[in-house]
Amino acid sequence: MKKTVLALILSISSLFAGEINLAVAANVSYAMDELKAEFAKMHPGTKIEVTLGSSGKLTAQIKNGAPYGLFMSANMKYPEALYKDGIATTKPVVYAQGALAYFSSKKQDFSQGIKLLNSKDIQKIAVANPKTAPYGKAAVEAMKNGGVLDSVKTKFVYAESISQTVAYSISAADIGFIAKSSLYSPKMVQYKEGINFKDVDPSLYTPIKQGIVLLKFADANKEYKDFYDFILSAKAKEIFKKYGYLVQ
Fold this sequence. Notes:
- By secondary structure, this protein is an alpha/beta fold.
- The chain has two domains: 2-97 and 207-242, Periplasmic binding protein-like II (D-Maltodextrin-Binding Protein, domain 2), CATH 3.40.190; 98-204, D-Maltodextrin-Binding Protein, domain 2, CATH 3.40.190.
- It has nine helices and ten strands.
- Helix 2 runs antiparallel to helix 9.
- The longest helix is centred in the first third of the chain and has 14 residues, at 29-42.
């Protein structure tokens, strides 16, 4: 029965050639408009629908049959699990490596490094849910390795995704751990490095290697493969670099 339903959905999807549905980790949202615009120069007839969220929640949706043909995760763990389960049709590859940053709408003394979080002036720390958001997991790892986790975990304000963490850092917390890529949003230009934000020491957390895979629904539309190839292209890498990612 499940195979019959899937075949029906795929056949219906094939009628909408020219439209692709992507599941994309929230941290990529800041670069996505430029990525889509560049892709459109080569494929002007392709309409791209993007669903943003934490990688864990997107993975759950994919496992439950959500009709995405491509998944851009914030780590390699979730794409690897989908590939192992036969839901992803391509072996996961890294498209970019992300980085963590501290961010506060208030002036902070970042010379203290991660010990800043112990300050009595820091009452709330925005962190993406480490159970579903790879950047949240990296933030907790950084605090643990920096020797402050036990003393500051009662200050945590959990967000569902890294983009929500940015919003919380501005409005509901004194400081937050965000994706460095979010600092390149036009909405963030008013904030200054060394005053409002600073890179988290990369030695404190495991490199955030972000993986991409094609999913079963991609079989109905070759334009998924076109977008997949574009994301791994030199032009896309240039765009990712503009938004603070490391690429090879």
